[in-house]
Amino acid sequence: MATGEYLRYVALGDSQTEGLGDGDDTVGLRGFADRFAEHLTAANPGLQYANLAVRGRLAGQVRAEQLGPALALRPDLATVVAGVNDALRPRFDAAEVVGHLETMFAELTAAGVHVATVTFPDLSRIVPLARPVGPRVHELNTRIRAAAARHGVSVAETARPAIVTDPRLWTEDRLHASPLGHERIAAALAQAVGLPGSDDSWTLPLPPADTPAGRSAVTAVTAELRWAAAFLGPWLSRRLRGRSSGDGRTAKRPHLAPLVRA
């Protein structure tokens, strides 16, 4: 049961947890886990935080590479967020993917850790070319909810509010959250674990955006083609070569330490 009293927080996952889309490798990545740690620190000034996430990791890799180190840190709170990379692969088995997540849920909760996770927005509502992935994400979310219920895992339902399809919550690649998107995910997690002062304001719409008048179908198609050339093409090329964006990378915060922001 959520108490809001946490002293050791460990984040497990892939690029979203690492923080892609919120900062960069030069100035440093922030991301929802750092932002969630800020919420936690406001309620628990002595909080220690580690982030084991590495971009490009599949759910099975998160389990194999991060679960043991996470348990060794003896957290009282952990976030486990993975599965989208699996859903984007040609071969996808939702039961297998959530089996990896559930093993992490089970081992962490058995160790007395309060675990939180998220559900994922339907990518086809954000990237029209990703329509075939929509049913996969729906099944993934359904299985995540069921696995979470079996182990008392808190779920931030970031799949459901209409706000999640607002383009301002996404980077240009439309696969990673923008700083504003990461901020909303952190607030959703704060509400899910019952932090003092948290609420559902993260679900509220943004003010109307200034959009160019008369956007034509041709303009929309051109934008999709440019997106495919800039982001989809390089991603597919890495897949065909058996490469990952996370090759050679390690966790950005492998050890527990206070979160200090400049």
Summary of the model, kept short:
With 262 residues, this protein is α/β, with parallel strands linked by helices. Helices cover 41% and strands 12% of the residues.
Verbal overview:
The protein has 262 residues and is of the alpha/beta class. The chain is 41% helix and 12% strand. The protein has 8 helices and 8 strands. It has helices at 15-18, 31-43, 59-72, 84-87, 94-110, 134-151, 179-192, 217-240, and strands at residues 8-13, 23-24, 28-29, 48-51, 77-81, 114-118, 154-156, 253-257. A 6-stranded mixed β-sheet has the order 7-6-5-1-4-8, with helices on both faces. It has a two-stranded antiparallel ribbon with strand order 2-3. Strand 2 (23-24) and strand 3 (28-29) form a beta hairpin. Helix 2 packs across helix 7 (179-192), helix 3 packs parallel to helix 5 (94-110) and helix 5 (94-110) runs parallel beside helix 6 (134-151). The longest helix has 24 residues, at 217-240. It is globular. The two termini are 33 Å apart. The relative contact order is 0.18. The model has no long low-confidence stretch (mean pLDDT 88).
Which helices and strands, and how do they pair?
Blueprint: E1 8-13, H1 15-18, E2 23-24, E3 28-29, H2 31-43, E4 48-51, H3 59-72, E5 77-81, H4 84-87, H5 94-110, E6 114-118, H6 134-151, E7 154-156, H7 179-192, H8 217-240, E8 253-257
Parallel strand pairs: 1-4, 1-5, 5-6, 6-7
Antiparallel strand pairs: 2-3, 4-8
Helix pairs in contact: 2-7, 3-5, 5-6
